TrEMBL record:
Name this polypeptide is given: Twin-arginine translocation pathway signal protein
Species for this entry: Pseudoduganella rivuli
InterPro entries to which the protein is assigned, alphabetical: TAT_signal
UniProt lineage: Bacteria, Pseudomonadati, Pseudomonadota, Betaproteobacteria, Burkholderiales
Length: 172
């Protein structure tokens, strides 16, 4: 009986901490205007950790080439986000804000600071969201997955790996 009470108290406390963290984030950030979203430093750091977990062996092995490919992909995500509706950009901004906020990151993703997280830890977090019972987290996973892969395959130097010869010359 005591374990059950402890579990319930911990659950309520965790919910309160998460709510307080969200309120604090909104207080610090202020009400976001519905305007085009540019990936800030926090979002770019989150993506720099997520990109290798999603792309895995598709990334170059050599460190400098790998870092350059990750940076190009993060830049590509920015380009893709810029084409979305403002309301969708706002949702993406909220997702990155939540993933950047330390209490929410630890509770929802279970990873240390993004620049300290291993690719395996990030991959485990992504897999848990992919298979989560809550549709909102599955949707967030799908958004991250699609943004990263879309940005990756928008780069012409990645087309050969999937046998895509590029756009038809007469149409370009």
């Amino acid at each position: 009986m005591s374990n059950r009470r402890t579990f319930l108290k911990a659950g309520v406390l965790g919910a309160l901490v998460l709510a307080a963290g969200g309120a604090l984030y909104r207080k610090v950030q202020g009400p976001p205007p519905l305007a085009p979203y540019r990936l800030d430093g926090g979002a770019r750091t989150v993506l720099a950790a997520i990109v290798p977990a999603i792309l895995g062996p598709m990334l170059p092995v050599e460190a400098a080439a790998r870092a350059a490919a990750v940076t190009r992909t993060v830049d590509g995500v920015q380009g893709a986000v810029g084409t979305l509706t403002l309301s969708t950009q706002k949702e993406i901004q909220d997702l990155f804000g939540l993933l950047w906020l330390a209490p929410a990151r630890r509770l929802l993703a279970g990873v240390p600071a993004w620049d300290e997280a291993s690719t395996e830890q990030v991959a485990a977090f992504l897999e848990s969201w992919r298979m989560h019972r809550f549709g909102m987290l599955r949707g967030a996973y799908a958004a991250l997955h699609d943004l990263v892969l879309g940005a990756w395959y928008a780069q012409p130097d990645t087309w050969a790996a999937i046998g895509y010869p590029g756009p038809i010359k007469e149409l370009s």
